[in-house]
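Problem 12. The chain below contains 335 residues. Write out its predicted structure in token notation.
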Amino acid sequence: MSDINAFAAMEAGGTLEPYSYDPGPLAPHDVEIDVVACGVCHSDLSMINNSWRASRYPLVPGHEAVGRIRAKGDAVTTLEIGQMVGVGWNAHSCQACQPCLSGTQQRCQTGVTTIRSNGGFADRLRVQDIWAVAIPDGVDAVSAGPLFCGGITVFAPFVNFGLKPTDRVGVIGIGGLGHLALQFANAWGCEVTAFTSSQDKMDELSSLGAHRVVNSRDEDALKAERGRFDFIISTVNVSLNWAGYLAALRPNGQLITVGIIGEPMGIPAGQLVGGGKSVAGSDTGAPHEVATMLEFCARHDIKPMIETFPMTEVNAAIDHLKSGKARYRIVLTNE
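Solution.
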């Protein structure tokens, strides 16, 4: 096999540079993918900057990759050469630990993330076969990449926490994750409320599926929502008035965070006990959940709103992400 040509950070916070590496022999359960497009996520930026103290350099970011299988290992039986697939946060899992055997392979005790094994900011990518999920008809390949991270991150809680079509759902933070959560909740049949500090998005939020919009910076507006919601999903990574959002839940309501907040949330225990409310976190999803999400997207014509950059302009794309002006996901393309 020839070298894989990629873009890598050579040190924490470094600008991405052209980088080639020899992937070695193809493992029996691995596939090699010609990358068509790859989303740019805030998690890529965190890894480039070593914000989570888990990065190793050279680091090839990219965990929202879509492309065609060009080669497969001898043990791969469920995928075919030329098939369009997508890859998310995970690249390998052991298939033997309790999480893997229970169908939550994204929590594998020895699993390897896509970025840790060289990611999708490249012309090619290798992953274990179960993490290459087929793209169904009706899902656009170029815009599909963000579904494999941002999409599954907000879709998985709907499945795992028992969201019902009759529920009233609030979404905090309408960005790369939140704009997908609105679409999912609306297609699920829920009454959907967007909590946002950007009041210039009203028409756009309505088109994405929000029935109501609440100014998240208006404490009186939040108080007026008291006892309304069955389910609130927070996509932000900053501290908010969590007591106010707990008060906005109905009895037995759930506040789910998918954003990694850098400090303790300070949840008042009395609000949990009084009304049987709960607070939980959610990560990404197992391969079967990703496949279910993609079918849901195809059925309801759900897709990320994207801006595209050529792969060769990766640093400009990262600067655009840092600026906070992206609406709502950035995708790098090799075509």
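Discussion. The longest strand covers residues 30-40. Students who got a different answer should revisit the alignment rule from Section 12.3.
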